[in-house]
Design a protein that fits this description.
The protein is an alpha+beta fold and 425 residues long. It is globular, with a radius of gyration of 25 Å. It binds a DNA duplex (18 and 18 nucleotides) through helix 3, helix 8, helix 10 and strand 9.
DNA sequence: TCTGGGGTCCTAGGACCC
DNA sequence: TCTGGGGTCCTAGGACCC
């Protein structure tokens, strides 16, 4: 098993299209340009941490010449697809684990050739996509993840670490902190600390049965995985998703009902698009909105309500109706000091494939009209850009103060003809 | 003094991940 | 002024059943 991932992936995507970014500190921000979510090694060296709010590090970034970007998910998604296409040249069995990480089955590769293959893979990905990567090899997923961490943090290894090599396994497990193990978070770390567990080897040598009490079956599984007993299979076919959510912080604050309903309707529109892309439907939506915990002293309010649909659907109009209803039935007129809402969202669980969901006996939605209508809307938006066609119910207010902020976003170089990079020769 | 012995299903909340 | 978004899995405990 091998785990390959892109180094500072979002930052590396930006670097591919602007060579001037090489060797200078780069960070990419979350939605609304809120927090740092990707940093190059140069940025990390300046003390910028994962999740640091941008307004707190802005001065540092200016002073140190850090190049700052809004997230460009269209670009990162496309680059992710390109790297995976390269991985597939090296292994027929690839599990895409996240936007920048994939597991590869290397069990057919002779042990002596694995490191060489991994080096070839890195070089090819770099040459064909421009993305730098690291590769970790282990007999289980947990060990491959650990090997990847070692490959990333020990420069001498040249970006590849193979823990199927018994010598490397014995060498590294007692030198790496248990905090680096995949699946060990803050809470588990505190428990392990109390037990005197410091290194990965300490955890591996624990008796798995009693561990189950404190760390649940998850902790027990980790111990087996560290010993080389695979508990987590390669998932070649992505499991059907169970839930779906569209939630956003507003770029400012919202106080009035009409604007809140407009925002929620826009989220419902996005939700419908996501569900239709996967042929899924839901028979209920949970709508929530709340004030910000950072607005100290201001009146606080947090609302969450679930609205039923007559039957399973992915119809944008039905979702908007339900979402608006969720706001309507929970809205409270403000008093002297209005609530200043900072975030709203729409969430669904228990998604089912629409092709075999039961129809409602009473109040069934008109699927025969809805299907073609939604297909036409999706086609228009695919061709002319999101928002080219929207239901009037979604709101036509031009004053979109709630819209997410992306003030430093680069062009969608690889997916939009009008935004292709220009080269001068 | 002393109140059975299983099951299933659902939900909320915790923990963790990228 | 300004603090992201979207997932999964697990457990405990309540409700309910016979």
């Amino acid at each position: 098993m091998a785990l390959i991932d892109g180094n500072s992936f979002y930052c590396s995507c930006e670097r591919v299209f602007d060579p001037r970014l090489a060797r200078v500190p780069v960070i990419v921000l979350s939605n609304n340009d809120g927090c740092a979510i990707a940093r190059t090694s140069e940025a990390k060296a300046l003390g910028i941490r994962m999740g640091d709010p941008y307004f707190k590090i802005r001065d540092l970034c200016r002073a140190q010449g850090v190049r700052v970007f809004s997230s460009n998910y269209t670009l990162y998604g496309d680059m992710s697809g390109r790297t995976n296409a390269v991985y597939r040249q090296f292994s027929p069995q690839v599990e895409i684990y996240s936007i920048d990480e994939s597991f590869l089955n290397l069990t057919d590769v002779a042990p002596a050739l694995r490191v060489e293959l991994a080096r070839d893979l890195r070089a090819t990905v770099r040459a064909w996509t421009g993305i730098p990567t690291c590769v970790g090899i282990g007999s289980t997923k947990t060990l491959a993840k650990l090997a990847n961490h070692i490959a990333k943090t020990v420069p001498d290894l040249g970006g590849v670490c193979d823990l199927t090599d018994p010598e490397a396994y014995a060498h590294w497990l007692c030198r790496i902190s248990v905090a680096e193990v995949w699946g060990i978070g803050r809470a588990s770390l505190a428990k392990l600390d109390a037990m005197g567990v410091e290194s990965v080897a300490d955890l591996r040598d624990l008796d798995p049965r009693p561990v189950r009490k404190g760390l649940t079956v998850v902790g027990e599984r980790i111990i087996h995985e560290l010993r080389g007993l695979a508990c987590l299979p390669l998932e070649l076919v992505p499991a059907r998703r169970k839930g779906c959510a569209v939630t956003r912080s507003f770029s400012g604050r919202i106080e009035d009902r009409a604007t809140l309903e407009e925002a929620v309707a826009a989220h419902a529109t996005r939700l419908g698009e996501k569900l239709r892309r996967e042929g899924l439907g839901t028979d209920h939506v949970t709508v929530f909105y709340h004030t910000s915990e950072h607005d100290r002293g201001a009146p606080m309010r947090s609302v969450s309500t679930t609205v039923s649909l007559p039957e399973h659907s992915s119809d944008t109009l039905a979702l908007i109706k339900a979402a608006r209803h969720g706001v309507a039935k929970t809205w409270r007129e403000p008093g002297e000091r209005p609530w200043r809402y900072s975030k709203a969202g729409i969430v669904t669980n228990d998604l089912v494939p629409l092709s075999h969901s039961p129809r409602a006996l009473i109040g069934a939605l008109d699927r025969e009209r809805s299907g073609p209508l939604m297909a036409a809307m999706d086609a228009c938006n695919a061709r002319w850009g999101r928002g080219a066609v929207v239901p009037a119910r979604a709101g036509l207010v031009s004053r979109r103060e709630w819209n997410t902020k992306f003030e430093m976003r680069t062009p969608r170089y690889t997916t939009q003809v009008s935004e292709l990079p220009v080269a001068w020769a």
